[in-house]
Amino acid sequence: MDDVLVQRDGAVQVISFNRAHKKNAITAAMYSALAEGILQAEADPSLRVILIQGHAEAFSAGNDLEDFLKHPPTDGNAPVFQFLYAISQATKPIVAAVAGNAVGVGTTLLLHCDVVYAAETARFALPFTQLGLCPEAASSWLLPRVAGYQRAAEKLLFGEPFDVNEAVAMGFVNRVVPAAELTAYAAKRAAQLAAMPAASLRATKQLMKGDSARDVNERIREEALEFGKRLISPEAREAFTAFLEKRKPDFSQFS
């Protein structure tokens, strides 16, 4: 599909968000395409690395709320969960290149990538509580382990945006790269990995992840159950309605 481009660059599977007019907000159809791109790379021995990127103006604005409300994830077979399981269980190295805004799942998906490069323009946000929701993509498990509990709590409880320097300090961005050089730099680093012994890379990734893979899958499932409850809650309805009406939500009526 045009909103997600899947292209081969040598031994690298390049997966690009391509919905710039919507700031790369992700629809159900896009989740299916993302999952398919990852699974395709996993199944093809000649593809050794996966590179995920967006545009200079936006990596991803997270879920497309209108589409999300039309196609809410009702079970583990929903496209969003197909994508989350695909990216969390991938055995091949995943490199991400981030510029502009990375909101919600635009940030949490990075916790499943092995190497993340970001431009100085990158901005991150995890606004789940602001929308009456809860964390997803196992971020409630992964982020405290990457960034430390207090840092993770501040980001997940307040949902406030933060810049690339804080993302580096939190540990889920490897390096800040000038915006004009980001795409080429990430492609070069992905190609370097692709030229290395594929079996050694897979073994190293598997050893680093260890038993955490089971914990991640279980947390994705637990979050999905709570997310489904939150999605139909009065708080979420107020948050979504306020967003679409371009006003500030009022949660004072809810306990």
Overview of this structure, please?
- This protein has 255 residues and is α/β, with parallel strands linked by helices.
- It has helices spanning 28-43, 65-70, 79-89, 105-108, 139-147, 149-158, 164-170, 182-194, 198-209, 212-231, 234-244; strands spanning 4-9, 12-17, 49-53, 58-60, 94-98, 101-103, 115-119, 123-125, 162-163, 175-177.
- The strands form 2 sheets. A 6-stranded mixed β-sheet has the order 1-2-3-5-7-10, sandwiched between helices. Strands 4-6-8-9 form a 4-stranded mixed β-sheet.
- The protein is globular.
Topology:
Elements: E1 4-9, E2 12-17, H1 28-43, E3 49-53, E4 58-60, H2 65-70, H3 79-89, E5 94-98, E6 101-103, H4 105-108, E7 115-119, E8 123-125, H5 139-147, H6 149-158, E9 162-163, H7 164-170, E10 175-177, H8 182-194, H9 198-209, H10 212-231, H11 234-244
Parallel strand pairs: 2-3, 3-5, 4-6, 5-7, 6-8, 7-10
Antiparallel strand pairs: 1-2, 8-9
**Are there runs of 5+ residues with pLDDT below 50, and where?**
none
Query: Would you list the SSEs in sequence order as H and E?
Result: EEHEEHHEEHEEHHEHEHHHH
Number of strands: 10
Strand content: 15-25%
Largest sheet: 6 strands, mixed
The strand order across the widest sheet is: 1-2-3-5-7-10
Instruction: For the record, give the distance between the C-alpha atoms at the N and C termini, rounded to a whole number.
Output: 43 Å
Q: Whole-number average pLDDT?
A: 95
Structural class given helices, strands, pairing? alpha/beta
User: How many distinct helices?
Assistant: 11
- Percent range for helical residues? 40-55%
Radius of gyration: 18 Å
What is the overall shape?
globular
